Amino acid sequence: MTVANGAHGSGKVAPDRSFLTASVPELVKQLTVGEKIQLLAGKNFWETAEIPRLAIPSVKVTDGPNGARGAQFGKQTAATALPNATCLAATFSAPLAEAAGHLLAAEAKARGAVCLLAPTVNIQRTPLGGRAFESFSEDPTLSGLMAASYVNGLQAAGVSATIKHFIGNDQEHERNGANSIIAPRPLREVYLRPFQIAERLAHPDAYMTSYNRINGTHSSENPWLLQDLLRKEWGFDGLIMSDWFGTYSVSEAINAGLDLEMPGPAVWRAPQLVNHLVAAHKIDPRAIDKRVAETLKWVQKYAKLNPEVVYAPKGPEKVRDSAEERASDAKLLREIGAQGAVLLKNEGILPITSGKVAVIGPNAKAAVVTGGGSAKLRSLWAVTPWDGLEGNKPADVELSYAFGCHGAKFVPLLDRQFTAADGEHGFDLKFYIRGEDGELAATPALVDRWDTSDLLLGEFQALIGRPAEWVVELSTTFTPEQSGVYEFGTTLTGSGKVYVDDQLVVDASKDQEPGTSFFYAGIAEKRGTFKAEKGKSYVVRLVHDSRRPADAKLLSQPIQIHGIRLGAEPLVSDDDAIAGAVAAAKAADKVVIVAGLNSDWESESYDRPDLSLPYRTDELIDAVADANPNTVVVLQAGSAVGMPWLDKVAGVVFAWYGGNETGNAIADVVYGKVNPSGRLPLSLPRRKVDIAANLNSKSARTDIHYEEGIWVGYKHFNARGIAPLFPFGHGLSYTTWAYSGLEVTAPSGEPSADEWRLEARVTVTNTGKVAGAHSVHFYTAPPAETATSLLHPEHALQAFVKLDDVQPGESRTASVVLDKYAISHWDELWETWRVEQGTWAVRVGVDAQTMYGRAEFEVAHDIEWRGL
């Protein structure tokens, strides 16, 4: 250790940074066996291991794809929430994806992290997948190109991407043990292709393996996947880490090439286990050296890029909330949200510029910013749809509001009517440890307070020493703003009871049913009612016992999770709420209904059962549209939902999950400040049975058969002649667009696979009266007949480009360069990429079912290749 510059006499010393210039091979030689084993797993939940003797630091990682949450699941650091991945993909804008990555890098560094566990590029094989909102698209090319831009934005700013989940985690059902059975061609052309494109164009520095098995072998111990394909065929030279608790072996995973078991401390890579297997010759010590070297190279690279982060004194995570940062971030989020919003239908009702407008719906005044699970975070700020519509309304617009019906899965969290002992919004927490004799300690082991009544309790458990059994009491003072009956609801792990002024209101200690909260570890919500008077104060207590009832069903979680959630709201019947909405609609000139899903409906750990909107939402929209046909529905969801009321409404906007600036982005589109340019990155099916994977979307006695093969998304709808509700690529505008002069410049001679290039261009004209942006989608169509008799999609997306600020009457040329990826398929007989000879064509997609033009080119020689 050396004395820090300017620190003479202060007692402070600078950390030893010799690791930054050290030789990794030499470091590996200097490490003891025990130190090497220590580096094979995380130090804790979010950090790699450190070796102080050799000045090897630990580095920190953070979730997730839509925002850098930081190290806390309980007392989360407030963070910037970006629009979700499908929203970003709907922009069809590579520059916006890169800008999103750049912003996420700044957010990660503020949390003290140099690695973001993102992006998620699994294919939306079914829109009902719990993490579909985290993924970009059903199309592998769109997914790969957006991921590449996202990764480039992150890594150019000095933060490692961790592209995930490698591979086949396209649904959540029994994800730790499910076996994704995928034939070689769809495996290559559909599920590996996004990773392959991102690897070629952006070189992500880390990969995260998936929980599931691929064709019989878990991804984290699959030598073909990690060594033969990723490292040898693709030339990957970075870190491979497991998903959290996604390591299932010692020797198999180390030998297969899994560098890092996460989280730590090690479950599988404990010194005694590893040493035992080395002695048994099940692990070659050289394999350990390789795993350690890969980890050290990665740590060293990002420590060099971020010494101010890695070597900073440990302290609270930072929040980027200066006025300048807030304004810059908000501008980008608002732009992504508005450009990603897809105008699905518009019968002359949008944009709204005047009149009495009734804003109705369960999501209108709710802060729905992202999906659930690893992507969920504490939003630094949140503009609700009502906030945005009210704050940005034109002078001639007059707004009213009606609730409509319930749409949230759980009773809303405690609001500002609930205060802690200090008088601030929130609640007090007391943790009591249960002794070996079964008795609770008389004195709490921890007293704390917080302001969000939805808590994973891992960090609190750590503070009290992770006892086997304990009880936490949450208490708060409730001062209602109106008299009436209030409904209280709780979902939790273990068991619990809710009291209001010592009156038992909710008993969640018996008759439990499995629920979806807390990564599927919580019970189905229990509810109860209490009659309260306006202005009177009541003491509300939730007493949570970590012990589960004796008759509770066994959990299948890889880790024991503890959590509590408590909510309360005035009791309102949906009958009354719908009647109120109808009355409001009749009194208005136009109606904007804001409805959809939220982080409790779409989340890691479980899939959606169907396409339906929650509870009576469809009934609400039907009734309102009957009362006033001048109705626009704004949908918030991360993937497809059903729309049985579609023919009754005048307009539909698919707004996705828009992050912090959700409401402003929605208002920009509804009021016409932004001309919508979003286009669907996935097909919206009419019915669940129309989804290609419908009959094979769950683990069936451990196996998930990907029997639809390459026919995923729009390729399935096109090949089978099924009309979707809205096709991939669909998206309306407040102006009109025309294409002309599609042409290509094809390569001459017989170029090799790596040299093959084709330029395609088309003239795009704004034929309407409003300036706007427009993305142009280029598809390739294979020869009509093939020598191999293989079936191919009639056309497939291969490139896109977005034209910004095209003025009325203006024409622009959109051009792209296509390469070997645009014409190649995986040949299962030759086990190589091949190109069909014959007459090919480039087409421009109005959407995935409607093509403009046909510019033909010839492939007259055999082309085959492997690698990138």
UniProtKB/TrEMBL annotation:
Keywords: Carbohydrate metabolism, Glycosidase, Hydrolase, Polysaccharide degradation
Pathway field: Glycan metabolism; cellulose degradation
EC number(s) recorded for this UniProt protein: 3.2.1.21
Reactions this protein catalyses: Hydrolysis of terminal, non-reducing beta-D-glucosyl residues with release of beta-D-glucose
PROSITE patterns: GLYCOSYL_HYDROL_F3, PA14
InterPro entries found in the cross-reference section: Cellulose_deg_GH3, Fn3-like, GH, Glyco_hydro_3_AS, Glyco_hydro_3_C, Glyco_hydro_3_C_sf, Glyco_hydro_3_N, Glyco_hydro_3_N_sf
Domain PA14: 422-582
Record bears the keyword Hydrolase: yes
Family: Belongs to the glycosyl hydrolase 3 family.
Name of the protein: beta-glucosidase
Organism: Vanrija albida
